[in-house]
């Protein structure tokens, strides 16, 4: 069986869903990856109930979501898209639902998110098989956002929505922190407990309790550098390189974390992914290297060091290395450099 067949077997998705994933264009935008997940065949059973129509129209027209529906809101995928987008916007649900309708929507949410997870992971694998580094990075971006329930890099007006991942922080406290210039989890974790209590108008031991929670948030570190040309290969390989024009340069990547102990967020040890992609020339957007593993594997002195061979670099002198957790936003670190 070929690689695509193996990927198809890995996920419990309908053949038509997998076929639509395979139709995604090269270097897709986030909106394209998100729409493919919304239109999965498995989600077509979530039809719009009469009590949900007004609420969905309001979400579409008045909440500032990034991907509004341009046609009348009537299809199951419209409902799925709007439900997920209002969740990821960091806003509370508009109060335009009856209690019974809200309860039904909440029941729908869990299976919708489960299908989304399968579709996004399958999409990442398919794009990785193609060698589409930009697409893999975008797929991981949407996957992180889905699990964190907030868009990566979101927050209009200088408000850092990634702070909504922290238990006990809602709209009001988010605004207080933003007014004080605290817009990232990393920045909040670096404050003293008494400073946090002053900003949040809370009494001790609130600050200490919050810092204990933040101690498990992964504060990833990344170093990357070019090591120059690889040693000359054997004569036969050298002749092949001359025919193909695909040279070889070595890159050192060191992945780690600043936390005093192995990060564990909400009782789970997160996984991280590292993507190396070309940024220019004929190699722009190409996947040059990919690694995935538990954050525990970064728990070595000086961080986990990997030396990667980059081929075909004549068409690309500038590359990007991106390291991030798979289920948390605000953990991403990047390094751009020349080979």
Automatic annotation (TrEMBL):
<protein>
    <submittedName>
        <fullName>HFM1/MER3 protein</fullName>
    </submittedName>
</protein>
<dbReference type="Pfam" id="PF02889">
    <property type="entry name" value="Sec63"/>
</dbReference>
<feature type="domain" description="SEC63">
    <location>
        <begin position="1"/>
        <end position="339"/>
    </location>
</feature>
<dbReference type="InterPro" id="IPR004179">
    <property type="entry name" value="Sec63-dom"/>
</dbReference>
């Amino acid at each position: 069986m070929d690689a695509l067949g193996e990927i198809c077997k890995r996920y419990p998705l309908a053949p038509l869903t997998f076929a639509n994933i395979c139709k995604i264009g090269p270097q897709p935008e986030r909106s394209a990856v998100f729409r493919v997940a919304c239109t999965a065949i498995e989600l077509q059973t979530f039809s719009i109930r009469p009590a949900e129509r007004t609420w969905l129209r309001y979400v579409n027209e008045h909440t500032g979501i990034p991907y509004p529906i341009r046609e009348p809101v009537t299809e199951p995928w419209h409902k799925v898209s709007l439900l997920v987008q209002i969740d990821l916007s960091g806003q509370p649900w508009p109060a335009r639902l009856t209690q019974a309708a809200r309860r039904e929507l909440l029941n729908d949410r869990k299976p919708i998110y489960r299908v989304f997870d399968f579709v996004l992971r399958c999409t990442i694998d398919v794009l990785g098989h193609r060698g589409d580094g930009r697409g893999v990075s975008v797929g991981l971006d949407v996957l992180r956002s889905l699990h964190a329930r907030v868009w990566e890099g979101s927050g209009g007006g200088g408000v850092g929505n990634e702070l909504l991942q922290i238990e006990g922080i809602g709209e009001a406290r988010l605004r207080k922190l933003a007014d004080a210039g605290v817009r990232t989890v990393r920045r909040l974790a670096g404050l003293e407990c008494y400073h946090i209590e002053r900003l949040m108008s809370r009494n001790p031991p609130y600050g200490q309790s919050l810092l204990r929670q933040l101690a498990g948030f992964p504060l990833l570190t990344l170093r990357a550098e070019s090591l120059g040309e690889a040693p000359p290969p054997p004569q036969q390989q050298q002749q092949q390189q001359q025919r193909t024009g695909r040279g070889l340069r070595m890159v050192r990547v060191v992945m780690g974390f600043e936390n005093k102990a192995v990060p564990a967020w909400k009782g789970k040890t997160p996984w991280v992914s590292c993507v190396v992609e070309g940024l220019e020339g004929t190699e722009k957007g190409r996947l040059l290297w990919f690694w995935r593993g538990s954050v525990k594997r970064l728990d070595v002195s000086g961080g986990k060091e990997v030396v990667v061979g980059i081929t075909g670099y004549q068409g690309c002198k500038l590359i990007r290395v991106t390291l991030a957790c798979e289920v948390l936003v605000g953990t991403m670190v990047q390094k751009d450099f020349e080979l």
